[in-house]
Design goal:
heterodimer; A: 687 residues; alpha+beta; Heat Shock Protein 90; 3 domains; five-stranded antiparallel β-sheet; 18 helices; 57% helix; B: 135 residues; five-stranded parallel β-sheet; 5 helices; 21% strand; globular
Chain lengths: 687, 135
């Protein structure tokens, strides 16, 4: 394994180095080409610049031959070379200054005496007289060029900085200086002598370089060690002047190229050595492990001196195992913690829900109590009133004639059988009224009371029918008619009123019973357990209570069916279940609109209590089914179909540890709620 | 529906709760005696049947009082239908629960005299009937 790693690493390094060499070569070719181009620019530029002083010198020499023209000629020369000349002096043979220029204001006069000037020139250590000479005044950083002619001299002072700037402009940033030397190699000047190793730039050395007619590029080293830099000199053969261009990048590249091979070789050797050492160490470790393993298997033959490597290996293995154990323990802790947090969140939700339900339960309980009180009072009053009405009927029955007693008994029978929910209405009632009226009129006529002033047979017929007369009609009508025609006819009329009072009390009692039913449902919804936790609940009864609470909502053209294929028990908070059923019923009714079908089925499937809510409303589009349980408006989440927001229902079902799902097709949408059946009561409770 | 040929007049009560029609019919009969025949129906279909009977018998239907929330046709639809056929009948809607839109619609399209909330006050309904029949 170690061999493989070492080999792969070595190959990688070699590939890297090869890539670097190719890159360096390519870069050097590019740099060489660039250097050639710059050289061409430099040559032409320096040549054009240096030609002008020559012209100047020649011109001024000629001027000495024709003194009258000096002023104009000097002016011309100075103007032509104004960028580079700081001054130009022409000295007569007698030492009289003939002209001294700044170029813009050439004048002749006594400002400079030839003696004074010559004295200054001669006192300068850097100016030597020769056929052609050059020097640098380091103080003023001026270049002096001199030429001796017949009995006189010309001295041009070049502005070195202007010339160097021009050169830099032409050569770009590569040009850092200008060196001038005569063809004899006697003098060399440099712009910044402080940075030039004078020994290396000695004119003799430069001259020797120049002696090589084929070479025109020279390299000089300046400085040593870290401060080493390079000076590149370019010879201009036609004029024997040199431009010095600083090109350290070229030489850095050259140095890199020259050192690259050495570095690569050293690196390869080092890597090879490391690989060899690793191989040896690995081999030794393997041998030690094998020996230790053998010793472990055969301790009696052991060397009693397990190698250091094996001990470390064992230690590492043990530490790794311990770390793995700790990691596993941490993972287990994390899982437990996550579960605990989830349970805590669920418990918090349940607690909040429980608290909310408790508040609602308290309010509903208060409302139920407040309603129950008047209901009880009205119911009691109705009972009492009915009893009083019956007392009146009893009095009429006991105190009057036989006919009166018969009428009172007939009325008592009507009251006894009176059921407000069976009251006749509509055409049936009208026909019954007409029939009773006819019978009444016939009987009254038969007993001689056809024209009685105390009552209207038509109205009497209505009153008798509204007392619930549906059986033994003729006999009942005859008794009442006989009583009305007796001497106690008014008592019979009072008996009819008493019977109506009793019937009204029955109506009131029926209304109170209905109100009590609703209040009971509210009480169930708000039962004290609502805030206190789960208890076994029968699903069917719970759904029926929800339907009772939503009774008014179901009063529309909706076919409502509640089918219990079983009646399972579940553990849940009563109010939670109520809210689930009420939400599902409200959702279905909303989706159905005013006309349609709502089927509620209760069953048991795979040990789960199932409640299905099927409605005939429009289908929920597939795209909306995916987001049905999100917190948003119900209608939007169910597409064009109506419906309420079902996200709370899902939460409620979750609190009851159940699940809810939905499948939807046009005219048939089914929500299925699955709840864990109560363990003990579930099966026994199913019917 | 014009004045009944037999000279009688009727009031029709429509509510799906029998106890309501029983209670209200007794209340109205006590108030109006034989002045109006009090007819009852538990739904719109039954009510239309009664209206046809009355028309056939020549009895003038002067007031229809209907609940709003009923199985089958809802009260507002019923009253609007009555109004379309019988423009002269006074209409009253009684309801324990009606949304504002339904109320606005029935006022606009059926031109009901009033929408009365349950529990009603008998005197209020009686006064409404008296004012409607007087006009």
């Amino acid at each position: 394994m170690t061999f493989m790693i070492a080999t792969v690493a070595l190959c990688g390094v070699l590939v890297y180095l090869a890539t670097m060499v190719v890159f360096a070569h390519t870069e050097s070719v590019r740099v060489e080409a660039e250097a050639e181009r710059l050289d061409a620019i430099m040559v032409s530029s320096v040549r054009s610049v240096l030609r002008e002083p020559e012209v100047a010198l020649e011109t001024t020499g000629a001027l000495l031959e024709s003194a009258p023209l000096v002023r104009d000629q000097i002016l011309t020369v100075a103007q032509r070379n104004s960028r580079y000349f700081r001054s130009l002096m022409v000295l007569g043979g007698n030492g009289v200054v003939m002209a001294v220029a700044p170029p813009s204001s050439i004048y002749a006069g006594a400002d400079y005496s030839s003696a004074e000037f010559m004295s200054r020139v001669r006192s300068s250590s850097t100016v030597r007289w020769s056929s052609i000479h050059a020097g640098l005044d380091e103080g003023s950083r001026e270049i002096s060029l001199g030429m001796s002619l017949n009995g006189g001299s010309i001295l041009a002072i070049l502005d070195f900085d202007a010339l160097a700037s021009r050169l830099a402009e032409l050569l770009g940033s590569s040009a850092t200086g200008l060196s001038l030397a005569d063809s004899g190699g006697t003098y060399i000047v440099h712009r910044d002598t402080s940075k030039v190793n004078r020994r290396e730039t000695d004119s003799g050395l430069l001259a020797s370089r120049l002696s090589n007619p084929t070479a025109n590029v020279y390299r000089f080293v300046r400085g040593t060690g870290k401060d080493a830099a390079f000076v590149l000199a370019r010879r201009i053969p036609e004029v024997d002047w040199f431009a010095i261009v600083d090109r350290p990048a070229d030489y850095a590249l050259a140095a890199f190229k020259s050192s690259l091979l050495l570095v690569s070789t050293m690196a390869a050797l080092a890597i090879g050595l490391a690989a060899a050492l690793a191989a040896v160490a690995t081999r030794r470790l393997m041998l030690d492990v094998a020996a230790a393993g053998h010793e472990a298997e055969h301790p009696e033959n052991g060397t009693k001196a397990t190698s250091m490597y094996f001990k470390e290996t064992l230690a590492i293995r043990d530490a790794t195992r311990a770390a793995s154990e700790r990691m596993r323990a941490k993972d287990a802790d994390n899982i437990r913690l996550t579960q605990t947090l989830a349970e805590l969140a669920q418990a918090q939700k349940a607690l909040v829900e429980s608290e909310r339900l408790a508040v609602q339960g308290t309010m509903a309980a208060t409302m139920a109590h407040e309603l129950n009180t008047p209901i009880a009072a009205v119911d009691s009053a109705a009972v009492t009133t009915e009893r009083s009405a019956r007392d009146i009927l009893g009095y009429v029955q006991r105190s009057g004639s036989v006919a009166t007693a018969g009428a009172a008994r007939a009325l008592s029978d009507l009251v006894d059988g009176y059921d407000p929910t069976l009251a006749l209405t509509g055409s049936t009632r009208r026909k019954q009224v007409q029939h009773v009226e006819s019978l009444l009129r016939s009987r009254l006529a038969a007993v001689g009371c056809a024209d009685h002033d105390d009552f209207d047979p038509a109205i009497l017929a209505i009153r008798i029918v509204d007392l619930g007369l549906t059986q033994d009609i003729e006999e009942c009508v005859d008794r009442i008619a006989d009583g009305l025609c007796s001497d106690d006819g008014e008592a019979v009329l009072s008996g009819i009123s008493a019977a109506e009072i009793a019937a009204s009390c029955r109506v009131a009692k029926a209304a109170m019973a209905k109100a009590h039913g609703v209040v009971s449902s509210i009480s169930g919804y708000s039962s004290s357990e609502s805030g206190g936790g789960s208890r076994p609940i029968r699903i069917k009864a719970s759904v029926e209570e929800a339907l009772a609470l939503l009774y008014v909502q179901t009063k529309r053209d909706v076919r409502l069916e509640l089918t219990a294929h079983a009646d399972p028990w579940v553990d849940a908070q009563p109010a939670t279940l109520q809210r689930i059923w009420m939400n599902m019923i409200a959702n279905a009714l909303d989706a159905i609109g005013y006309r349609g079908y709502l089927g509620i089925r209760v069953l048991v499937r795979n040990g789960k209590a199932i409640v299905e809510f099927e409605d005939s409303g429009p289908a929920i589009p597939e795209v909306f089914l995916r987001t049905l349980w999100q917190q948003d408006s119900g209608v939007r989440l169910q597409g064009e179909r109506g419906g309420i927001n079902l996200a709370p229902v899902k939460e409620l079902v979750g609190l009851a540890k159940g699940e809810i799902s939905c499948e939807s097709a046009p005219g048939r949408t089914i929500f299925t709620i699955s709840l864990p059946e109560h363990v003990k009561l579930g099966v026994a409770g199913s019917t | 529906m014009g004045t009944g040929t037999d000279g009688s007049k009727a009031i029709l009560l429509v509510d799906d709760e029998a106890i309501i029609v029983l209670a209200l019919s007794r209340e109205l009969r006590a108030a109006f005696g034989g002045e109006y025949r009090i007819e009852t129906a538990l739904n719109a279909e039954e009510a239309f049947e009664v209206i046809s009977d009355l028309e056939r018998e020549g009895c003038e239907l002067v007031v229809v009082i209907s609940d709003w929330l009923m199985p089958g046709m809802r009260g507002d639809d019923f009253l609007i239908a009555v109004r379309q056929t019988y423009p002269a009948i006074a209409l009253i809607m009684v309801t324990g629960q009606a949304d504002e839109k339904a109320v606005e619609r029935v006022v606009r399209e059926a031109k009901v005299l009033a929408c009365i909330r349950k529990p009603w006050r008998g005197s209020e309904i009686i006064e409404l009937i008296r004012s409607a029949t007087k006009a």
